[in-house]
Each structure stands twice: as structure tokens, then as C-alpha cells.
Backbone:
């Protein structure tokens, strides 16, 4: 890494550092433009914007501790020990700098290079958007010997800044309650926030993040001295590494941007190969996750492929083959973290980096440092190249299997699986495929469905665990081959979502342990081999009822114990039957409870955080028993009424 003191730390941060660009009303009119969406993902983005501002104080060298609390009333408090938002009035302005940050869309210290060299948040755009989308917000600033406080309702200040006390401490506290009229839900998820804060602590070795959820009495503390190397080890704890320590690649490079201005990019990467078949490469810019990658990820991938090919050729490890990018990344876990001034993102939510200098910097650093590492560690280099060659051979075998399959007209012909009861509608956007556990339930579903737009594919038993198998082995499995043909987009790296035949793919299994296992195997298949289905929100879990409460000709279906008790109280003397499986329902009941679009309940599968999802699938479906045991013990109290 470069010199943190020379590169990051800045001294000038006062009222004149706050530059105002103005305007806030549009946020409430079109919140999705600023936070991505108004679902649970957008809700949590509010927290990220506030915490990112505190992280910026850490990166600037002025803060070491951040406290985040989900309060019992559902509000969020974020406290840091940084310099505190300036409270004076900038030149040419009538409002205080703090009020500008909280009410003007483009006001903030991040526009002033003397205040911040690098930043992930954007004082003003971030916190003002949070203010605009909150029922109320209170900002408390400790600065220059005083405690300043200002409160807001729906983004409008209740009054001027008040001085409510004296202190020798510094820092900023933001407490806010999201506006329930703006969001589909205002209930924060502990695991989602926990994962974000853990990641930021890995990427900032000098910070300690205290996280408390007062609603449930949970407390966590995150601090990691090992940085990105510790991050990779954490992600691989449920996997089997091929070499004991992650490869660490660090360096700083300066390139001119499109305007000819020199830009210094600090590169910090850790990578470790495992015996698995999936790739888990995640990227960050100024500690902000970029789930859609961007130029820094492209630079890494390009340099990795070229460096391994060059080393393999020079050391006679590749013979006559040329590795593709996917070969060099099979089983790879990597964290790419860069820091740079004024990164250019492709959206306000910073999901994809567009800065060209980042690609040049990362590519150059990786090429230099990885080559040096391979030359100094020939045994690890040989192991990595052997893994890549295995991937190449598996890919070639898969290609030959696909070619053979195509010659047999199995994957690309109009010959659909015999067990598939297809729908008459041909527009994929209107079609649904129910994957049903068991022949009995499959028969009921076929009779009870709406044949116009609902297709049924029964599956027998548990499919192959794709976490432990290469693509070339998958098409040998009857159930997976039938699924692949029915869905229509192919499988693995060649999956093409434009060719799928259904835009709703519904997993319908019994509400027991076996049903949950089958559903997890199917989700693993879709996430690992047909990932765009999950990313686009096309995968659902059906929610069949657990009980039928009936008395005379009156009957109601209950989906949990609370509903069952409620219906029993409403109909004294009623009978109740517990559904052990889908096969116990006749076709009409299955339609009414689980398949009728006007009455059914379904869960859409959404991946809020790819890092968390990758680790979860590795934990649940991998070979290592201990992490799975720890996960089950930790989450056992969240499972109720489980039939074993």
C-alpha cells in the first residue's frame, strides 16, 4: 500500500469545505433514482449512506470507532468519533454547513479535495437523501468545544441549530426513522446490516464498528487487523483452500484520467484458491461494495489470466493449451479493494465503477506482484496452474457433452421432457413453471393448475448437489437435464436468459426437512449454474398452508401457528388438520391455497449481498461439516414447528 499519512490524511475541513449545488424535492418524488429502489434493499441503503460518511472520516485519518444501533422504535443511530460536520456558515451561503449537508442534494465536503482525498460516501447526496426519505432525523455534532443539534421532519428543519452543551470530544451522530410511506417495508434486517459492517471492518483495519440491535438484544463488535487477507480467510472458512495463506497483492499506481489529470490508485487485493468450482470475486472502491464490478474488476481479471498463461508457458505447465478467464478463476475467492479520489460510478448507488484509470492501475499492479509471487512460490504456482488446467479439461468435456447432446437433439430441439405438463401460452413473461416435489403432488398440481399459463414439472427425490460437481457432470443427471431443457436457457457459463421459457420459476416442496433440503438443492443449482434467473428475480418459493381449519362447510387455511390459533378462536369447536405434504391436498385445494394468483403467497428469491449468498451456499452445501454445524446451532432458535 502507499503511505497512508501522505496519501489519505488531510487537514482542512471547515465550513468553507462544504460546496453547495442545491435541490432536494426530487428525492421524495423519485426515490429509486437515488437509492436504487424502495424495497428492503433501498431501505438498507439509507443506513449505508450514513455509515459510509463515518467510514470516510476513518479513511481520512480522523475517526477510529463507529457505533450503529437499531433502536427499539425501528429508528437507526450512527455515531462516529470523527471531526464532526462543520456547523459554521460557508462563504456565500445563508444556511449553516450542517444544514446544507442535510437539506441540499449536492452539498458536501467530498467536493473539496482539501477535506477528503478519497471517500466512499458523499456528504450531502448521501445524508440529505436519507433526510428526505425519513419521517424524522436528528443530527448531533460535537465540534469546537460544543454540542450542536438540529432536528428535521421529512427533510425540513424544525428550527435552527441549537447548542445543547459543551464537550472536548468530536464526532457526528445521525438518528433517523425511515418514512413508511416511501418504502415497502421499514423493518431493518440484522443479518443484512451485520454483513455490511463486517465487510467494512475487514477493509478498514483501523476501525472498530459496534453494532447493536435493541429490538432483539443482539450486540456485535467488528475489528480485523488482517485486512483483505483476513476477509478472504473468513469467506473460505467453509471451503477447502489449495494453499494455506491468501496471496496478497498491494501497490499504488498513478495514471492520467481522460482529462489528463494524474490520479493515484491504491490497490489492495487478497486471493486464495479452493477445491470448489465456483468463483467468488468481490470488488470494492473506497470500501463501498461494487456488486456489478467495473473497471477495477476487469483489470484484475485481465491481468490474472495473462499472468497465469505466461507463467504456465514459461515453466512448461500448460503444454499446448491456452487458459480462458473462467479457467483461471475456478475455485477462486478474492477481494479487490481500491482507493482513489473522485471515482466515477455508473449509478448513484455506486454498483459499478467506470473509471478507466482504475483498470490500468489494477492490471499493472496485479501483473507485477502476481508474477513475483509465482516465481517466489513455485509449489503454490504449480497447484494453481493444475487447478486451472483441470478447469480447462472440465470445460472442454462439458463442451463435448453439450455438442453430443445437441446432436441428439436433447437441449435445443422442441422435444420437452415427458414429465413436463406445459402451458399453452408462449410468451415467457406470462408463463410460470412449478417444480413440484413428488409424483403425487405433481399429479394434483397438473389437475388443479390453470393450463393457459402454468406448467408443471414433477421431480423425484433430491437432485445432485451442484456445489460439488462440474458442469460436464450435471447433464448426466436426469432431473437436472429435464430442468435445463424445460427452462430453456442452457446451463453454466453459456446460460442465456433471453432463451428461457418462463419468467416465474416456482419451487413447490413439502413443508418439512426433506422439502427444505430439496428446495435448497434447487436454489443451489439456480444460483451456481443459472445465476441470471436469481438476479432477475425469476425464482420463487411456493408457500403452501400448514393447516386447514374447518367447521361444517366453512374452512380457512392457515400458513402458521398464529393464523391457526386465530381461526380456531373465530370458529369455536372447529377441527384442524395439519398438512404433512403437498400430496395430501386435492387439486382444488392446491389451486386455492398455493397456485391461484389471486390468493397464493410466494417468496421471491433475492440476493441482497452476493458475498453473503456465496458463503451461505458454501456453508450449507460444501464438504466441511464444522461450519455447517456452527450455522445450524447459531440459527436453530429461528426455526419453529419443524417436522423431523
Residues:
Amino acid at each position: 500500500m502507499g503511505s497512508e499519512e501522505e496519501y489519505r490524511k488531510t487537514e482542512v475541513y471547515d465550513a468553507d469545505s462544504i460546496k453547495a449545488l442545491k435541490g432536494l424535492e426530487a428525492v421524495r418524488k423519485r426515490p429509486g433514482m437515488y437509492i436504487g429502489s424502495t424495497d428492503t434493499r433501498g431501505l438498507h441503503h439509507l443506513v449505508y449512506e450514513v455509515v459510509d460518511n463515518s467510514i470516510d472520516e476513518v479513511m481520512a485519518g480522523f475517526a477510529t470507532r463507529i457505533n450503529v444501533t437499531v433502536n427499539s422504535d425501528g429508528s437507526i443511530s450512527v455515531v462516529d468519533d470523527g471531526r464532526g460536520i462543520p456547523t459554521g456558515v460557508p462563504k456565500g451561503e445563508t444556511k449553516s454547513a450542517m444544514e446544507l449537508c442535510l437539506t441540499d442534494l449536492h452539498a458536501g465536503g467530498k467536493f473539496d479535495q482539501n477535506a477528503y482525498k478519497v471517500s466512499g460516501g458523499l456528504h450531502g447526496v448521501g445524508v440529505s437523501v436519507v433526510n428526505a426519505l425519513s419521517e424524522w432525523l436528528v443530527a448531533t455534532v460535537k465540534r469546537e468545544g460544543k454540542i450542536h443539534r438540529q432536528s428535521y421532519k421529512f427533510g425540513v428543519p424544525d428550527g435552527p441549530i441549537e447548542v445543547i452543551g459543551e464537550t472536548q470530544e468530536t464526532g457526528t451522530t445521525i438518528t433517523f426513522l425511515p418514512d413508511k410511506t416511501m418504502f415497502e417495508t421499514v423493518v431493518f434486517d440484522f443479518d443484512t446490516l451485520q454483513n455490511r459492517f463486517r465487510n467494512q471492518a475487514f477493509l478498514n483495519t483501523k476501525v472498530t464498528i459496534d453494532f447493536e440491535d435493541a429490538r432483539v438484544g443482539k450486540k456485535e463488535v467488528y475489528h480485523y487487523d488482517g485486512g483483505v487477507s483476513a476477509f478472504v480467510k473468513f469467506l473460505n472458512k467453509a471451503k477447502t483452500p489449495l494453499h494455506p495463506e491468501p496471496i496478497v497483492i498491494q501497490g499504488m499506481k498513478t495514471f492520467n484520467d481522460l482529462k489528463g489529470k494524474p490520479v493515484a490508485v491504491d490497490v489492495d487485493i487478497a486471493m486464495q484458491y479452493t477445491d470448489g468450482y465456483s468463483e467468488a470475486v468481490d470488488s470494492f472502491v473506497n470500501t463501498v461494495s461494487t456488486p456489478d464490478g467495473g473497471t477495477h474488476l476487469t483489470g484484475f481479471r485481465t491481468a490474472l489470466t495473462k499472468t497465469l498463461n505466461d507463467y504456465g508457458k514459461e515453466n512448461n505447465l500448460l503444454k499446448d493449451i491456452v487458459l480462458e478467464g473462467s479457467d483461471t478463476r475456478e475455485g477462486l475467492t478474492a477481494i479487490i479493494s481500491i482507493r482513489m479520489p473522485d471515482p466515477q460510478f455508473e449509478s448513484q448507488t455506486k454498483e459499478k465503477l467506470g473509471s478507466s484509470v482504475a483498470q490500468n492501475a489494477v492490471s499493472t499492479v496485479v501483473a507485477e506482484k502476481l508474477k513475483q509471487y509465482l516465481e517466489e512460490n513455485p509449489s503454490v504456482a504449480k497447484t494453481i496452474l493444475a487447478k486451472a488446467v483441470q478447469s480447462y479439461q472440465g470445460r472442454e468435456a462439458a463442451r463435448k457433452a453439450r455438442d453430443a447432446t445437441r446432436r441428439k437433439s436433447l437441449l435445443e430441439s422442441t422435444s420437452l421432457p415427458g414429465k413436463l405438463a406445459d402451458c399453452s401460452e408462449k410468451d415467457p413473461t406470462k408463463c410460470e413453471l412449478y417444480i413440484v416435489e413428488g409424483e403425487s403432488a405433481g399429479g394434483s398440481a397438473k389437475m388443479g393448475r390453470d393450463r393457459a399459463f402454468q406448467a408443471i414439472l414433477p421431480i423425484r427425490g433430491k437432485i445432485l448437489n451442484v456445489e460439488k460437481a462440474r458442469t460436464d457432470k450435471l447433464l448426466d443427471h436426469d432431473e437436472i437435464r429435464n430442468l435445463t431443457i424445460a427452462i430453456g436457457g442452457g446451463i453454466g457459463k453459456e446460460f442465456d436468459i433471453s432463451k428461457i421459457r418462463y419468467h416465474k420459476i416456482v419451487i413447490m416442496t413439502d413443508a418439512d426437512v426433506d422439502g427444505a433440503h430439496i428446495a435448497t438443492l434447487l436454489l443451489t443449482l439456480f444460483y451456481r449454474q443459472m445465476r441470471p434467473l436469481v438476479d432477475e428475480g425469476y425464482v420463487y418459493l411456493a408457500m403452501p398452508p400448514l393447516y386447514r381449519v374447518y367447521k361444517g362447510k366453512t374452512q380457512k387455511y392457515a400458513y402458521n401457528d398464529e393464523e391457526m390459533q386465530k381461526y380456531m378462536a373465530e370458529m369455536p369447536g372447529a377441527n384442524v388438520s395439519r398438512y404433512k405434504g403437498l400430496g395430501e391436498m386435492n387439486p382444488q385445494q392446491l389451486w386455492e391455497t398455493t397456485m391461484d394468483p389471486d390468493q397464493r403467497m410466494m417468496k421471491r428469491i433475492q440476493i441482497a449481498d452476493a458475498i453473503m449468498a456465496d458463503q451461505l451456499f458454501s456453508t450449507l452445501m460444501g464438504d466441511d461439516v464444522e461450519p455447517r454445524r456452527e450455522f445450524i446451532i447459531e440459527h436453530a432458535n429461528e426455526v419453529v414447528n419443524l417436522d423431523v
